[in-house]
Amino acid sequence: MKLLVADDDLTSRTMLAAVARKWGYESVTAEDGEEAWQILQQPEPPLLLLIDWEMPRLDGLGLCQRIREIDTKNPPFIILLTSRSETDDVVAGLEAGANDYIVKPFANAELQARLKVGRRMLELQDELKEAQNVLVYEKEVIENIILKARHSKPFESSQLRQLDKPVEKTSGDIVLSTFTPNKSRYILMGDFTGHGLMAAVGGPIVYDIFYTMAAKSITLPEIAREINRQLLAKMPTGLFLGGIFIELSADGRALSLWNCGMSDVLVYRHNKLIHKVSSNTLALGIITQDFDNAIAINVEEGDKVYAYSDGITEIINTEEQEFGQDRFEQTIVEMLENEKEIAFLLDTVNQFRGEAKQFDDVTLVELTC
To answer: Domain count of the chain?
Structure first.
């Protein structure tokens, strides 16, 4: 392992480098902080550092501070050498970024032990990094499998506009759409607990059930019942699916809605909100339940139906204000009155959020009857 010895005293520097070589380290030396800094900028620099506090040009404390200002996945282990032994000095050295502190004069056995600690910490750091790389690779593979499963399904996009802005590569939100053989339109907008990979793993189960059963003209309550059964059987406790099931009749005039633990479904006519359908059923994957309580609405040509995840209404800005339901409903009116693209909704939400972090997936589907 490479060891950087930075000390302005030639005798001390030479002796420290020599004894470290006897202990199996590849010693690299610097006569002051600036030279040490230049060595650390080279490819594959030493990560175990033995630095004297008192040095010209750039002292040990300043070098520690400069090193810690760098954002790196491979931070070095710094041992600070000094004749200062006061508590305030020790605190100052550690706060500047040193990992350890040795007061001169010291015994070689103490130095060797402290170097071993540093070496062990760097080796553990390498092992952790390797494990993280394996997890990142495996996560990427699973994400790609989920995305492929999602995009391989026969999604019917006619009469639909969508928004989809996940927090991570994969989303816990889903939008499924198809026509049955009898020409009824089936839509499922769902929101799994949480976001990211853990929330997305249930997606393929739901996709297969929804599209396979819809292709046989099986009713939406039966489809919902089967999805609920499968999630109860296969998903861990605490991971469930809020869902909005929508059926539009073949003639486009009869709308049936099932709201299972989701935000209100909104129906607009001539740019005015005419219906709000609140949740009247628990989310799927919690308990065994029936789905026979459909909300029936007579619709006209041009009516707009909105199903969405709470990632939109619960967006928080830098002042910790929530976007909220009222603001969201008014934004839809503004979009419809000005004949804006669906992206107008997302642009408005992002403008409200500003520099604040997005914490939940944002998904919306608009159906034009």
So the answer is: 2
